[in-house]
Every structure is written in C-alpha cells, then in structure tokens.
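histidine kinase: structure, please.
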Amino acid sequence: MMQRHLSHFFISALLFIVTSFGTVLLITPQSLVSFVGPCAALLSGLLLVWRLVPLIVVVIISPILAFSFDYYLHLDANFTVMTIAVLAIVLQACWTKQLVFRFIHYKKWLSSRKYLFFFLLRIGPIASLVSASSVLVISILDSRVTQGDFLYTFISTWSASMLMAVFFIPLLLLFNNAEQLKLTKRFFIGFTSLLGGLAVFLLLKSSQYQQQQYRQVLFEQATLEIERLIMAEVNAVVTNVTSLAALFKANDTVSLTEFTQFSDNIFKQDSSVRALEWAPIVPLSERATFEKNSSTVLKKDFSIKDKLANGTMVVAPPRPQYAPLYYLYPQAINEAALGVDFYGEFKHSFPLQAFNNEEIMASAPVILAQDKVAIPAILFRQAIFSIPEKQSAAELIAQRKLSLITKEKLLGLVIAVVQFDRFFEQLAQEKSAKVNIFIQDITADEPITLFGQLLPSVNRHVDTLTLSVFSRLWQVNIAEKEPWFSQTKSWQAWAVLLGGTFGAVLFQMLLLMMAAYSSELGEQVHSKTRNLILAREKSEKKSLAQSYFLKTLNTELRVPLLAIRAFVEQLKERGIHNKEVTGISHASSNLALLLDTMLDVSNIESGKVTAKNDCFDFYRFLQRTESVLKASNEYEGRSIYFLIDDSVPHYLNSDQLYIQKLIYALIESAHQLLKTNKLRLSIKLHQHKPAEASLFFTLSEQNPVTTALSTNVYRRQTNNKLIIDSTAFSLATHYSQLLRGDTNLATLSSGAGVLNSSIRVNILSSTEQIAAQDTAFDLKS
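Here you go.
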C-alpha cells in the first residue's frame, strides 16, 4: 500500500510540474494565469482515481513552483497570487469530484450516452468556472490593472481548463479501466483522443502566434511613429530658431518692431515654442549706456538682473560681459524675464563651450521665472557672430572653424523657449489606445523627467528609444497601455478560441459517444438475452406442463375408449349391427384419431419428436399417397389431382412419414377452408443452396371459381395474416414447422382461395441421384 502511494505521489508531482511549466511556456504571452486552468483539470482527474495523494502533492510542490517561476521565468509569483492559484486548483478538483462521484462510484459514466453527456458537462464547462473566475483576480494582481476588458482572459482560461478536463479525465479513467472495456477499444479511444487534442492544440497555438505577431507589429509601428513625431517636432523648433538667427545675422541692427513682426509670423505656426528671445552681448564698459538706451527703446526701466535661488530678482554684479534678455515675444507674459542675464541664469544648463559655439544647442530642462506652473522648458539657442568685411567665403569658413582662436566677435544669442508638454500630451492621446510614453533627459548622471511617469511593464510590450537632441540625450520609454489580458481582441481571435474549444469538446464527446453507444448496445443485448432465456425457461416449463397435461389426459381418455371399443366388439360378435352400434364404433375411431393427433402435436411442441433425414424416392412416395387418397375419397365423392413440377427431383432427404401426415392434414384443411371436393395439389421446388431447398405444396380448386372463403370457419385479420380456427389446419402448421417450414392461407386476385405449405429438404447431386436409383432398382430385383 505504501509503495503504491509513493508511486502515485511521484507521478502526480511529475504531471503537475510538467503541466505547470508546459502551459506557461507554450501559452503566449507567458503569465501566471496560464497554468491555473490546466492544473485544476489535471488535479481533478488525479483526485478521482487516487484520492488525497494528489492534493498533498499540490500543497508541497506549490512553493517550489513559485520559486521556479520567479527565478527561471522572471514571473512575479508572490505569496498572494500563488495562494489564490492553489486554492482555485484545489477547489475545482474537489468540486469536480463531488459533481461526478456517483458516475465514477457506480461505474456508469460510459454506460450510456445520457450519462456521458452529463459527465462531460460537469467535469468541463461547469467545474472550469472556478479556475476561470479565480484567474480574473490573479490577472488584476499580476498586471496591477483594475480596468479593462478581462472577458477574453476568463474565456481562455475556462477553455483551457475545460479542454484539459474533457481530454485528460476520460483518458485517465480508461487507462485505469474502471469500465472493464476491451484493450482494443481503449487503445482506439485513447489514440484518437490524443490525435484530436494535438490538432486542437496546434490550431490554438497557431492562432496565438498570429495574434502575438499582429500585436508586435502594431507596437513596433507605434514606436516608430512616436520617434518620427518627436524628431519632427524638434526639427520644427530648430527651423524657427534658425529663421530668427538668420534675421539677426542678415541685418546690422534689428528693431523691436521687426523682431515682433517676424516672431508673430513664426507663432502663427503650430509649434511647441513658448517664447522667442534676443540676448545681445553687452561688455561691462557699455552696461550703463545699454541700460539707458534700452529703457528708452522699451519704454520702461531696464536693468541687467540675476535671479537668486529663492526666485528674487537682483541687479547683476559686475562681470566681463552680459547677455541680457532684451527682446521677448510675446512680451506680455514674459516680462518677468526681461533683463535677466543669460550667462548668469543658464550657465549650468549648457555645456561649457556652448556660449561661444555657433551651432544650435539645447539646454537641460529648466523651470523659468515667468512660469506660474512648474513645467520644464528646453532652451534652444544659437550664437550670432559678426561677419568681417571684405573676406572671401573660404576665409570666412576657416575663421568660423577657428572662432575660439580668432576671437570672432559675438553679437548675441537667439533663444527659443520650448515646452513640449502640450505636444507630448497630444502624442499620448493619439496613441492612448495602444501605448504610454515616459520621456527623460539622461545627459547627466541624474535623469530629468520631461513627460509622464514610470510605466508598468508586466504583461506588456516595452521598448526604449535614445534620441540625440542637439547635444542632449533623451530616453523615450514606450509600453503598451493595457496588458495583454485586458486588450480588446479581434473577432478572428474570438472565433478561433470559441470555435476550437467547442469543436474539440464536440469531437471528444462524439468519440466517447461511440463507446457509450457500444456499451448501451451490449447492455441491451445482455438484457434481451436474459429476457429471452427467462421467456424460454418459462415457455419450456409451460410446454412441459401442457405436454404432461395432454399426455395424462390422453392416457386417461384411452382407458374408457378401449373399454367402449371392447364393448362394441362384443356387441358385433353377438350379431348386433344396428345403427347405434355403428355410430358408437365410428365415434370411438374418431376419438382415437383425435387423441393420436393431440399426442402428436404435444410431442412436436415439447421437442420430443424430430424429423428424420432419410433418402427416399419422392415420386414413388407421391404415387402411393395419391393412390391411397383417391381410394379413400372415392367413397366420399371427393377427388384429388397431383401436379408435380419438373424442378422436383426424384430423390430427397427428409422424413416421409411426416410429409405424408402433412399432405393428409393439408387436404383435410383444404376441403374445409376452400369448400370444394375437387382439389389440385401442386408441388414445386426452390433451391437455396447446392444441397438445400424448399418444397412447396399448393392446394387449390381444380376448376377455380371466384368464391369467398368458407364463412363457417372463424377467421380474423392480424398483421395482414389470416389465422384460421381449424384442427386440421393447426395440425398441418405443426407438421410444416417440424419440417422447418410454414403453412398459410392466401387469396388470389380473382378471389379464389389457395392453401400453401412449405418444408425444407436436402437434395442429392446428380451423381447421388443416379446412385440412389441404382440402389432402389437392386432392392426391387
């Protein structure tokens, strides 16, 4: 007993581990919800045949399984999720056993199609609701998402559990041979079921592969589109900066009106630029003059300022040169920044060489003084250098390349204040049905968030883009907005899932229905055989009782009959031959004949009499019979004519005694039923096999006249057969049945009656016919 329990323990553990890892690896995408349904069905089957051992296996193996999932497959198999999964598996197994206990205990799940249907219904669609419901909770905990469409997850888990139960549990029961089926039948059902299960698995697997490929393509398209749109927006900003820089480079001086008009044209375009600024280079020696002139031009007090850490504006201290914000567009909402020294405020936002480099540079995200909301802004700036007069293009390019050495005069900085938050929000809204984005500036050691927040990656496609944005590095994290389980599925996915599931269940049901139907037929045959045996025993008892009664009655009646016949003989010896004595003599003879007939019928019904199979000259037999009948009928005014067909051979194997009795009974019945004294007996042969044939006796009127059958004889119609209440006819029927034939009364289309009878005979071959003739000739000699 202990050894058997140990084998059950190790087999259950192996099956549980293989099923768990197999389903997680084969069902894509990988998730903890994949193994719950199939493992619940597996445990249900093992629990039905091995009782409590599989439950112990699940409790012991589950912690090891959770560690393996976490370590090898990197799935978050935490305590809560695994506890819910194990409870769901155990609950479904126990409920399944409760639902089908009677089917298994009384061994009737495969005894009929009705029981099989309810058995499969309980182990599959009904019991699988437990694991399917629990998986919804596991999906929410595993994906950390409480919103979305989880119907596909519910149906897919229900489908996996149902398919595993419908295919595995019957196979396990057949392997256990609880129904005592033949090995060939079990092998056929098992092999066919495995092939069907494999076909369904390949169908569902190919559908999963197609779905995941389509999902991957959509995600990659969204990723490429996001990269394209971000770079397009950045290039549009750079184009605006370049255009404004070209304005200042092409003119010796640019007035505030010209700057405003040019900037207004730029702002008419849909862009992320929040403000355009011009910061001229002011040496320390020219600071006072510049501040005085600027106050006149701007019509307000202007001074070069610095911004402290607490946001307070103070007069900028002396430094070799300044780059104050002089022109602002739009000025109305950016006046707070007017006069702020660009060198002092943003020296930490650009690389060290950025202020003396003519290339466009982007700053680290900064919070502007004029912002009421802390939205990070990116400063795109381009330095404007003076163009020396009377220089060739080659000399100009050479000096530009050596600007740090030749100290080309820096006139000022064109600055674009860019805030991408509105663009990023629009981008996120456009892709809201597919992906979420999280953007950071990772140029420095400490990343700076530009948009969004850290994205969840469980059960989602995730990708990371690194974009070079004018001396800055941006990292764009892209992830599916919803996990796979809550994503909306196409109608093709639903069609394959539902069609494959119900098709597989129907296939397995029809396969097992054949076995159940075979069991039904076997049970019906057994029941019919038992009923026939009982009926036969009852009939034999009844026949024996009837035979015993008739034999006893025959014996009892023969004693007084013998006494009567002896008394008649004494009267005749005394010379008394009057009418009464003659009547008594005829009555006793008729009674004796009736008793003989009754005894003969009783012996036939009880099986005490069997027909012989002797070879005899059938033609000679008919001649004798015809002669006897003509002699006896001549006194009564009757006639009989024998008509023998050429197909009837001379020699037959049968019992001529009972054939003779049959002919006598038929002729007597024909006189009564056909109500005629002139009969014709036609004899024909129909050969079934080379050595077996049927001999037909047909009695009809010699000169048929359309007359109704005798109304003096009682008859009734039952199932298109005429049943006649006649002693001679009954006797003929018994004789024909003894000779393996039948007797019936028919009516021709003309209305004339015909009495038919058939018997089975064995015929001799031509060689045997000749040998029989030679033997008969020798006996006559």
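Notes: DSSP finds 20 helices and 22 strands in the chain.
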